[in-house]
Amino acid sequence: MGLSEEDQVRIKRRIDRRLIPIIGLMYCVSLIDRTNVAAASVAGMIEDLALVGNRYSVITLVFFTTYIFFQPPSTILVRRLGPRIHLGSITLAWGAVMIGMGFTQRWEQLAALRVVLGLFEAGFFPSCVYLLSTWYTRYEMGKRYGLFYAFGAVAGAFAGLMAYGLVHMHGIKGMGGWRWLFIVEGILTCIIAVVGYIFLVDFPDSARSNWRFLSAHERDWVVARVNADRGDATTTKFTLKIFAQQALDFKLWVFGLLFFCTSTQGYALSFFTPIILTAGMGFDATATQLLQITPMIWAACCMFIIGWVGDRWRIRGPLIIFNMTTAVVGLTLLGFHSVVGVRFLGLFLASGGVNGNIPLLMAYQANNIRGQWKRASATAIFVGLGGVGGVAGSLVFRPSDAPLFRPGLWACIACCLASIIMVLLLSLYFWRLNLRAERGEIVLEGGDEVAVWDEGARVAFRYTY
């Protein structure tokens, strides 16, 4: 496209600066708002709303009823409406719901608002994953996904400090500290929604909001390089039949099951780390608010480093297996060692291994999918099953299992082992297909395997394993 190497680097950096911080910040508030019931639970919410028995688990679980159901339409809506309108609107809406949570008087009211929160948040994560995948080539995605997710994880971790300050507003206007936690964080979410609406950009093949961000010539270069890498930078006409047919590819469901296993563990640790630290390790509420920050900071470092290594060496599967093995070691220490310090180390290892795999799995899936509507369908299945993992994660740890929480830890270890087996089988399958393509037996076109008989057939795609 007539651009020098220096100009190409400059454009990619401009894309990074514009996309990653904005959606990372918005993802940060998304992550905080769906999991801040954990911080509120140790700040008086359990007592004020009489969350006895399994009511706390119900409150964490009901969020996913709408979160799962409304994810598939999101990748269609974000294409129709554009990221600015779609993401900005739903973020503003769930910020208002968060404010309302601060004024609930019964646990049923909080549960109902969590259902509405899931409705609005359902469209956010799949849209962000999809948007990022359209701007970068396959081996640029790992560190970008890692940076995007790490940005949210670090900010989310420091939200523990913010929670520590907000719960000390207890008594102002006659309200408990946990109420101020919801209200103030909801207001911040609304502010960030407006910022996102102003600064978000559209897809590279759309000119709706990119004219101030990239010139037409620069945008054409982005589309051309993505096409050269995987041939799917532009979108074909949408029909529901085409969108639904993509779900017949078994690979999409294996990717989704991998994300289910990882999300089950990730949500379980997010929802129950404060409870593990208090009921399981004996820390008080103040120490818990501060200590829960440190494992997520470590996890954020793991996300970016693993993403960078994966892009540098163009591998995904071996790194996923490494992370799951690390998580198994951490979970074992957490549940089967008697020294509190060693158990806390186990929490670090588990958090790093589990959360480090989230952006890595995004890249693993994105690297092995071609076609915009197949990518949209794959993202919906991927994130949808991740939402199902959220339901499972809400039920994994039970207060009655304190202080060691071994049944929940066994469930997480089982998810790790299942992930290792799936990655081994899927990577072996990809390796065999690539080998057949090298011999000219098949052509890998559009992510599908098509038999060919003429030796001159063009091989347009390679799987990443």
From TrEMBL:
Gene3D superfamilies: MFS general substrate transporter like domains. It is a multi-pass membrane protein. It is found in: Membrane. Residues 19-436 form the Major facilitator superfamily (MFS) profile domain. Its main location: membrane. Keywords: Membrane, Transmembrane, Transmembrane helix, Transport. Signal peptide: none annotated. PROSITE patterns: MFS. The chain crosses the membrane at residues 20-46, 58-78, 85-105, 111-133, 145-166, 178-200, 252-277, 289-308, 320-338, 344-364, 376-396, 408-431. InterPro entries: MFS, MFS_dom, MFS_trans_sf. Pfam families: MFS_1 (PF07690). This is Major facilitator superfamily domain-containing protein. It comes from Aspergillus pseudoustus.
